[in-house]
Design goal:
This protein is α/β, with parallel strands linked by helices. The protein has helices at about 10-20, 30-40, 85-95, 110-120, 160-170, 185-205, 210, 215-235, 245-260, 265-270, 280-290, 295-310, and strands at about 1-5, 25-30, 45, 50-55, 60, 75-80, 100-105, 125, 130-135, 140-145, 150, 175-180. The protein has two domains: about 1-180, Rossmann fold, CATH 3.40.50; about 185-310, N-(1-d-carboxylethyl)-l-norvaline Dehydrogenase, domain 2. It has twelve helices and twelve strands. Helix 6 (about 185-205) crosses helix 12 (about 295-310), helix 8 (about 215-235) crosses helix 9 and helix 11 (about 280-290) crosses helix 12. The longest helix has 22 residues, at about 185-205. The radius of gyration is 19 Å and the shape is globular.
């Protein structure tokens, strides 16, 4: 297959490298600072799932879709931050051969933007709940995982053939991946996980396990989970749990231990003086809470703390 990865940071470079190493034709749209190292040395992935590499010349690295406008792809994977989704879909819409467009991003609302631009038949969503870190340009390490990548279509209880095809390719490349008939439930499940951990961990400057070990932090996370669950229910969405209490039990028993030492991407962004994805996480919950009349005081507070740090701490 021929695959484009748009906005290839840690996640996109790792997925692109592993697919290219397995024989697929892969092009990356990346920041300028990565292009030289990738073109000179190729890409390499290490860590949890083993060692993978693709040599220079066997993977494309470009700064803009204008450089690849004549190419035809089977899939275009969006791996940007959520605040760049609109730019991503605008750019991909300018490529006649962008193929099936897949949101592989944090937060909620991204798949809906893809569907709005490309239609349900050309849109897929992916839930990624694995930790990727850039050790140096072109060198990615997979640090933790809580589950396989899930890929599915926008319609509940349907698995598009193309979701099965892409999931199979990613899984065969060495990165656990499976197709699903309920990707929206998976995205809401990840929203619960990310909202509980990322803003609080970023505000306090600690890894996930430190939050789970502290009674005070647990009380804040419990409140966040309650608010997120209430908002999901108010919007008519569904998750894999009947209530917030059932999710909290799974969260503390399974998810925090599996990612105990992980420092969230939000914390890493703040450490680098970069913008975070808080508006697609607790910020999203706050917006939806106001829209549906659901109180979200804790999510509101965490969102404003992170926004303050974005403005004043760099």
């Amino acid at each position: 297959m021929r695959i484009l990865v748009y906005g290839a940071g840690a996640v996109g470079q790792a997925v692109g490298c592993m697919l290219a190493a397995d024989g697929h034709e892969v092009d990356l749209i990346v920041r300028e600072r990565f292009i030289g190292p990738i073109r000179e040395r190729g890409l390499a992935v290490s860590g949890l799932f083993g060692e993978y590499s693709v040599s220079a010349g066997n993977i494309g690295a470009y700064a803009s879709v204008d450089d690849i406008s004549g190419n035809i792809y089977d899939f275009s994977l969006i791996t940007t931050k959520s605040y760049d989704t609109e730019t991503a879909v605008d750019d991909l819409a300018r490529i006649p051969g962008s193929g099936i467009v897949v949101s592989m991003q944090n937060g909620c609302g991204n798949l809906e933007r893809v569907v709005s631009r490309f239609g349900e038949e050309r849109s897929l969503g992916a839930r990624v709940i694995t930790g990727f870190e850039i050790e140096s340009p072109g060198r990615i390490r997979i640090t933790v995982t809580a589950d396989a990548i899930h890929i599915g279509g926008p319609r509940e209880n349907e698995i598009p053939d193309l979701a099965i095809r892409l999931a199979g390719a990613i899984n065969t490349s060495g990165l656990p991946c499976e197709s699903t008939s309920h990707i929206q439930r998976d995205l809401f499940a990840k929203l619960l996980y990310n909202c509980a951990l990322n803003p609080l961990g970023a505000a306090l400057g600690v890894h996930y396990g430190a939050l789970g070990d502290d009674a005070g932090a647990r009380s804040i996370m419990d409140a966040v989970i309650g608010e997120v669950f209430a908002v999901i229910e108010a919007t008519g969405g569904k998750t894999h749990w009947n209530n917030a209490a059932a999710y909290r039990e799974f969260f503390y028993r399974e998810q925090i231990p599996a990612t105990y030492n992980h420092r969230s991407s939000m914390l890493q962004d703040l450490d680098r003086g970069k913008r975070t994805e808080v508006d697609a996480l607790t910020g999203y919950v706050s917006v939806k809470g106001r829209e549906y009349g659901v109180p979200t005081q804790v999510c509101d507070t965490l969102t404003e703390i992170i926004r303050f740090r974005e403005r004043h701490v760099g």
